[in-house]
Amino acid sequence: MSHFTGKVAVVTGAGSGIGRALSVELAKRGARLAICDVDTVGLAETEALVRSQGAEVKADHLDVSQRELVLAYADDVAAHFGTVNLVFNNAGIAFTGKVEQMSFKDMDRVMDVDFWGVVSGTKAFLPHLIESGDGHIINISSIFGLFSVPTQSAYNAAKFAVRGFTESLRMEMIADKRPVKVLCVHPGGIKTNIARKAEQVEGLDHDDLAKQFDKLARTSPAKAANVILKAVEKNKARVLIGADAWVLDKFVRTSGPGYARAVGAFSKRNGL
Predict the structure, then answer these.
(1) Please, what is the average pLDDT of the chain?
(2) Hey, which bits of 110-214 come out as E strands?
(3) Largest Cα–Cα distance of the chain, in whole Å?
(4) Which of 12, 132, 145, 177 is least buried, going by the fewest C-beta atoms within 10 A?
(5) Helix or strand run (H / E) with residue 87
(6) Which helix (H) or strand (E) holds 9?
(7) Which H helix or E strand runs over 173?
(8) What 8-state DSSP symbol labels residue 266?
């Protein structure tokens, strides 16, 4: 029997990347799935993959930046399955550009999906997770939630915020003796389409940015999903994914604030 057998798991951003890999791996482990995404084509493909594993699945179009829709979605999922055990707040987007070049609208869009989407998903499902008596919230931050880089200020801000929010939530669940475990995930470079789907300020080459990301992304979504699920089984508070994540985390912790100067110099040399 798998740790996930018979449990109801919700995965946002399930249409591709880590979200799709998590959905498939959970299906293999006997979970019942509620998957959602704004990409209906990708979501349908994930749904077919999950069904091919013999898993029960409910697939819905959902924009996690729309809070009222997320709240209604949580109630709908709970009514459909009768309970909710795990929520993977995975949906995310990226945007590249320097602070002085970005509009407030650009920043708001990243925060609305990457941070507020996580908050809404957590708040919406938390009562159902508590009621289940066996809940688990898994919020996807990033290695960029542990250190910052130029041109990613909005993404950094959102992912740092996810980290702080999630760590505080875990403390609250422990202090209040709630039956809900909490995990914060920090992936490094994962081979997903996030860079190809990302937008950027005027003047930057989209394809060139995507190619640069592809060179750095060494970990497969399937590998990431397995690392996440193992961390869930072990009730870890935090998990890093990929050798790059481990190296960069150690670099930041050992160099302290000085890492900013080193990263800034590297970025200047490489025209970033």
Answers:
(1) 91
(2) 135-140, 180-187, 199-200
(3) 56
(4) 177
(5) strand 86-89
(6) strand 8-12
(7) helix 153-175
(8) H
End-to-end CA distance of the chain: 49
Spell out the domains of the chain, with CATH numbers in brackets.
Answer: 8-269 (3.40.50.720)
Cα distance between residue 231 and residue 24, in whole Å: 17
CB 147 within 8 A of CB 199: no
Residues in the chain: 272
To 5 degrees, how large is the angle CA 105–CA 106–CA 112? Answer: 80
> Averaging pLDDT over each range in 142-151, 176-185, 210-219, which range is the top one?
176-185
Side-chain-facing half-sphere of 2: CA atoms under 13 Å = 15
- As a whole number of angstroms, the distance between CA 27 and CA 52 comes to 9
Residues 100, 88: Cα–Cα separation, whole Å: 33
Provide the pLDDT for residue 210.
Answer: 46
Q: How many helices (H) and strands (E) in the chain? A: 11, 9
Phi, psi of 7 (to 5 degrees): -80, 150
Taking a C-beta distance cutoff of 8 angstroms, is the pair 26, 229 a contact?
yes
CB 219 within 8 A of CB 18: no
The residue from 88, 115, 116, 155 that is catalytic is: 155
The rounded radius of gyration (Å) of the Cα atoms in the chain is: 18
Distance from C-alpha of 272 to C-alpha of 252, rounded to nearest angstrom:
19
Determine which of 91-95, 195-199, 212-216 has the lowest per-residue pLDDT on average.
212-216
Q: What does the DSSP assignment read for 208-238?
A: HHHHHHHHH--B-HHHHHHHHHHHHHTT-SE
This prediction's pTM: 0.91
- SS3 of residue 133 by DSSP: coil
| 197: nearest Cα among 3, 17, 50, 6 | 17
